[in-house]
Write a structure and sequence with these properties.
With about 100 residues, this protein is mainly alpha-helical. The protein has 3 helices and 2 strands. It has 2 domains: about 60 residues, Helix Hairpins; about 30 residues, no CATH class. About 5% of the residues are buried. InterPro entries: Ribosomal_uS14, Ribosomal_uS14_CS.
């Protein structure tokens, strides 16, 4: 059973994916200096109505095994401890312990 942080991150990823196109459109209109101020203000108000989990900054890289949010090796989506365990067990292709 994943912990609450992992569930929250999954919810944020789903929300960002669902609302990405409309958010980008409103951001483009709100930041476009050539448009009239009223249109830009309306776009900014629409952006403010989006929920918390529609912002891309709420998504955090987490370990797929443990849910840990720090020390993530992004290529494998594992924290450093899980990466070490899986590498020593030979479960990661192309990864082996260095010896010289």
């Amino acid at each position: 059973m994943p912990n609450i942080r992992v569930l929250r991150d999954m919810k944020a990823r789903r929300g960002v994916l669902d609302n990405e196109v409309t958010r980008r459109a409103y951001l483009y209109v709100a930041r476009n200096q050539s448009l009239p101020p009223q249109v830009r203000h309306q776009a900014q108000l629409q952006l403010n109505t989006f929920g918390r989990y529609t912002r891309p900054t709420t998504v955090k890289n987490r370990c797929h095994e443990s849910g840990r949010g720090r020390g993530i090796i992004s290529e494998f989506a594992l924290c450093r401890f899980q990466f070490r365990l899986k590498a020593l067990a030979g479960e990661l292709n192309g990864v082996r312990k260095a010896s010289w």
